[in-house]
Amino acid sequence: MINRIKTDKAPSAIGTYSQGSKAGNLVFTSGQIAINPISGDMVTDDFSDEVRQVLNNVKSVLEAGGSSLNNIIKLTVFLTDLSQFNVLNTVFEEFFPENPPARSALEVSALPKNVNVEIEAIGVIDD
User: Fold this and answer.
1) Which sequence spans correspond to the domains of the chain?
2) In this structure, are residues 116 and 50 in contact, taking their beta carbons and an 8 Å threshold?
């Protein structure tokens, strides 16, 4: 059985998709961008702050599905400028100081709403 995730602690979907899906003991987030779910504003003035907002959105979707940042199996990161990779890593150290999850990072030509980073996650639910 598949359950769709909907939470007001993360931005609403900006297209025809769910914020995430729960299947068995796995939670799959849709790609999250730097929309503040409270104000609806984009957080793109500072790349570090943008990554923090995206990771907080990922966290909210995971938690709504019964998982957490600590239970992420895999992250996929899409960047419009791979030269920001070191900044990305610095912010990731804040969120994942020990035992970081598996991760891929790809440079893409563009992302929705002209953001600089989008992140999707797969997390496991503790039994």
Assistant:
1) 2-124
2) yes
> Mean per-residue pLDDT for 102-107?
98
State the pairing for strand pair 26-29/20-23.
antiparallel
Q: What angle do CA 49, 38, 111 make, to 5 degrees?
A: 50
Strands 2-5 and 20-23: antiparallel
Q: Are strands 72-79 and 102-107 parallel, antiparallel or unpaired?
A: parallel
Place of tokens 């994942």: 96
From CA 1, how far away is CA 112, in angstroms rounded?
30
- What is the CATH topology of the domain spanning 2-124? 60s Ribosomal Protein L30; Chain: A; (3.30.1330)
Confidence of residue 14 (pLDDT cuts 50, 70, 90): confident
Residues comprising the chain, all counted: 127
Q: Dump pLDDT digits (tens) for 22-80.
A: 999 999 999 999 999 999 999 999 999 999 999 999 999 999 999 999 999 999 999 99
pTM confidence score: 0.96
